[in-house]
Amino acid sequence: MPIALITGGSRGLGKNTALKLGEKGVDVLLTYRSEAEEAQKVVKRLEDMGRKALALRLDVAEVSKQADFVTEVKDALKHHFESEQFDYFVNNAGIGLYSQLAETTEEQFDQLMNIHLKGPFFLTQKLLPFIADGGRIVNLSTGLTRFAYAGYGAYAAMKGAVEVLTRYQAKEFGARGIAVNTVAPGAIETDFGGGSVRDNASLNQMIASQTSLGRVGLPDDIGGVIAGLLSEDNRWVNAQRIEVSGGIHI
Questions:
Q1: Distance separating alpha carbons of residues 21 and 237, to the nearest angstrom
Q2: Which of 92, 121, 141, 237 could form a disulfide with 8 if both were Cys (CB 3.0 to 4.6 A apart)?
Q3: In sequence order, what are the residues at sequence separation of 6 or more whose Cβ sits closer than 8 angstroms to the Cβ of residue 50?
């Protein structure tokens, strides 16, 4: 069975992606930062599908501890999944931060950079020997790299860098048959960014009014796209930014 590693898989889009992959017969190794109980619930749901699943703690921003995490991954692959490699890697872990450019602090900037750019850059580098030839990587970005909402400039800048990084990864990893793409969700009803899109009715309505399909997104709108992009049906898709936003601001 194929094996996927998903960062930030205990909730939101990562959780939905894990479950969609499970439905497609993929075993899942997921990470969480603080939601251990929620992560175990996802593992249980995957196991109920007949999948092998395991959750490991990871703070993707702590680059100095990534080598220890990679050792845990190696051991988990050997002892839990009976494998030496995994097939799919989804860089999903992240946070939302609202701050006007004029008010963004260096601490906020560094936090966003470590979580969204530096962390995934070096984590992918360290995990690359364990990704099977012909495997696939999906990096998560945001619709905010195409359209601009005041207050999200620093966050969107990091994701813009991720989109460029994706193309370079596709270029350099292609010799091993590894395809790398970006999925860029629009506004989604999750607890991301404090759950504002989900819980703020006026914001939800405003976004829906700007979206051609007439509503904001749901996790189910994204997880299936990521799972599908990782499948053999999309093996020839490479180095692409795929926006999944219901047609917002078109």
A1: 18
A2: 92
A3: none
Contact 9, 32 (CB under 8 A): yes
Query: In CATH, what number does 3-244 get?
Result: 3.40.50.720
Burial class (CB in 10 A: 0-12, 13-18, 19+), 50: exposed
* Rounded CA separation 211/217 (Å): 10
Residue 91: which H helix or E strand, with range?
strand 86-91
Beta carbons of 94 and 116 less than 8 angstroms apart: yes
Eight-state DSSP code of residue 116: I
Q: How many CB atoms lie within 10 A of CB 118?
A: 17
Residue with tokens 């012909």: 134
Per-residue model confidence as pLDDT tens for the chain (250 residues): 999 999 999 999 999 999 999 999 999 999 999 999 999 999 999 999 999 999 999 999 999 999 999 999 999 999 999 999 999 999 999 998 999 999 999 999 999 999 999 999 999 999 999 999 999 999 999 999 999 999 999 999 999 999 999 999 999 999 999 999 999 999 888 766 666 677 678 888 889 999 999 999 999 999 999 999 999 999 999 999 999 999 999 9
- Hey, what's the torsion of the CAs at 32, 63, 123, 129, to 10 degrees? -120
Q: Which strand ranges, in their side-by-side order, compose the sheet holding 27-32?
A: 53-57, 27-32, 3-6, 86-91, 131-140, 179-185, 241-244
Q: What is the CA radius of gyration of the chain?
A: 17
